[in-house]
Amino acid sequence: MSELYLNNPNLKKAYVPIEWTAEQVQEVIKCSKDIDYFIKTYVKIINLDRGLINFDLYPFQSEMAGIIADNRFTVIKTCRQAGKTTTAAAVILWHVLFNESYTVATLANKLSTAREILSRVQRAFEYLPKWLQQGVVTWNKTNVELENGSQIIAASTASSAIRGYSINFLYLDEFAFVPRNIQDDFFTSVYPTIISGTNTKVVITSTPNGFDLFYKIWTNSIEGRNEYVNFAVNWDSVPGRDEAWKEKTIANTSEDQFRQEFAAEFLGPTNTLIDPNVLRRLTFINPDSTHYGGSLSIYEEPKEKGIYFCVVDTSRGSGIDASAFLVFDVSEVPYKVVVAYKNNIIDPLLYPEVIYNVAKSYNNAFALIEINDNGQQIADILHFDLEYENIIFTSVKGRSGQIIGGGFSSTVQRGVRTTKQVKRIGCSNAKTMIEKDKIILNDYNLVNELSTFVQRGTSYEAESGSHDDLIMCVVLFAWATNQSFFKELTETDFRKKLLEDREKMVDDDVLPFGFIDDGGNPEVETTINTPSGSEFWNGFDNDNKWGGDW
Fold first, then answer.
1. Number of domains comprising the chain
2. Which of 469, 498, 510 lies closest to 404 in space, CA to CA?
3. Is residue 475 included in any domain, yes or no?
4. CA angle at residue 322 from 220 to 159, to 5 degrees?
5. Which residues contact 189 (CB under 8 A, 6 or more apart)?
6. Rounded to an integer, what distance in angstroms lies between the CA atom of residue 33 and that of residue 42?
């Protein structure tokens, strides 16, 4: 009876007994404890010029293998053609050989790439001595299973790719080239399974490709805001690459291509609203807290005397575009994003309550609502049902287009309509404010959207497959800052007068047909006390639903 798997002379069938010599036993023990020794001694690779050779690791490859072996979470930013995939394949082989019932998932931006990773593991396995191999149970292009219960799965990076598997080692290759919406969906789906174990590993490797989730994980690692150990492989880490090689490569490609592909810099498109050099230096921070299932990010609690401006964008809640709003602290320059909300499935009838709860807590923030689509419904619910006072009114004034205010003009409306003129002015102002550091963005999703907000004809919009919901909040905010209303916003007398005018307009909306004298004192003024500091957070119950006492 053959001891070979499917008559492959390089593979041993499962459960075939082997008699080890004392020297072989010592070698197995040594290999299991020293990944560097195992790879350099027993792993073979195909070299384009020399054929089948021992994998003599470069110094940076040895360091990379050791970092992966010793840490649970690793993020590796690497240049092109540095051998990181071959190194990762050798590391994966070491893990499945010397661990029982150990499952590795190798995922890449394309299934063909994931299969290529698995094929490198298989090739290295086939050239191991038989006494060092595990017997083979399953051996195909997307799955390898060994007699010790360990297995390797190859798949494309999708939210359902490895659902149902208990994964010990998740390897994500070229993660920056996975579509951004799939990146988020994948982590939402898979990450809870990964962290349920105490020794599970996540290894992410990629060449940079803009300001995506890979950029976020890398930046957070550099800043010490997550558990990932970071490791960078630059063009000059690879032996043989010197300044002459660099100049030749740039001449054959371009400066920008070299910076992204070989210098491993995070670059976005060149036709973005914000200058690419500015995009590279934009920073984000982790929120102090999140609510509503993670849709609401709080970056700073409301200050007692702070002045806040809330800009609202609305979607249909169909899972495509998102309903979003930003709260800006406009007490001083630079302005600052203190709250960000984004949710693509919230019902438009529930959305006003979220806006109300947040805007109310931020000292009755002035609320500017975009009303192109069903935003008018949101504005009406806030005004009539929730009786929110500080909704911004606009009106049309001849060639000036829409302006904030307008008194009792027949064109007055609750909110602003995003016309070509409004968007043009807003984009121009936003560009200036961001590039001149007049606004602190804080939110990662906002920075991410800015990196794909590109020119289309004479205007700007999100790249195909990307979104601009939060950016449009910034654009409308930037438009508003050009209005006389905004320039006078910090003046106490102006705000008092604005409140009086607003109360008069509300009174006119419900003006009765007659007058009733109830004997009350008309000079007594009613005030509203807004919560501050810790009172705000007590408004959320344990289910992230609003339940505060006002």
1. 2
2. 498
3. yes
4. 60
5. 159, 160, 163
6. 14
For 39: left if phi > 0, alpha if psi spans -120 to 50, otherwise beta; the answer is alpha
Q: How far is CA 211 from the centre of its chain?
A: 8
| CA–CA distance, 316 with 343 (Å, rounded to integer) | 11
Query: Is 174 designated active site?
Result: yes
Instruction: Tell me if 348 is assigned to some domain.
Output: yes
Please indicate, yes or no, whether residues 302 and 217 belong to a single structural domain of this protein: no
Residue 144, beta-bridge partner list: 139, 152
Amino acid symbol at 165: Y
Is 8 within a domain?
Answer: no
Mean pLDDT lowest among 138-147, 161-170, 440-449: 161-170
Helix (H) or strand (E) holding 459: strand 459-462
Paired tokens of 510: 């419900």
Spell out the residues 6+ positions from residue 386 whose beta carbon is closer than 8 angstroms to its own: 352, 353, 356
Instruction: Mark whether 231 and 286 lie in a shared domain.
Output: no
Which of 491, 483, 472 has the alpha carbon at shortest distance from 397? 483
Specify the CATH number for the domain of residue 364.
3.30.420.240
Rounded to 5 degrees, φ, ψ at 110 are -130, 150
- Report the alpha-carbon distance of residue 382 to residue 398 in Å, rounded: 28
Domain residues for 89? 58-235
In a domain, residue 16? The reply is no
Residues 6+ apart with CB under 8 A from 159: 182, 185, 186, 188, 189, 190
pLDDT the model gives residue 157:
81
My answer on whether 230 and 302 are in the same domain is no
Residue 195 makes CB contacts below 8 A (sequence gap 6+) with: none
Q: Which of 184-193, 212-221, 519-528 has the highest mean pLDDT?
A: 212-221
Are residues 461 and 339 part of one domain? yes
Alpha-carbon dihedral sign for residues 258, 262, 265, 266: positive
Of the residues 174, 300, 449, 463, which is catalytic?
A: 174
**Tokens for 49?**
């010029």
Residues 353, 358, 364: CA angle, nearest 5 degrees? 105
User: Is the predicted pLDDT of residue 533 greater than 50, yes or no?
Assistant: no
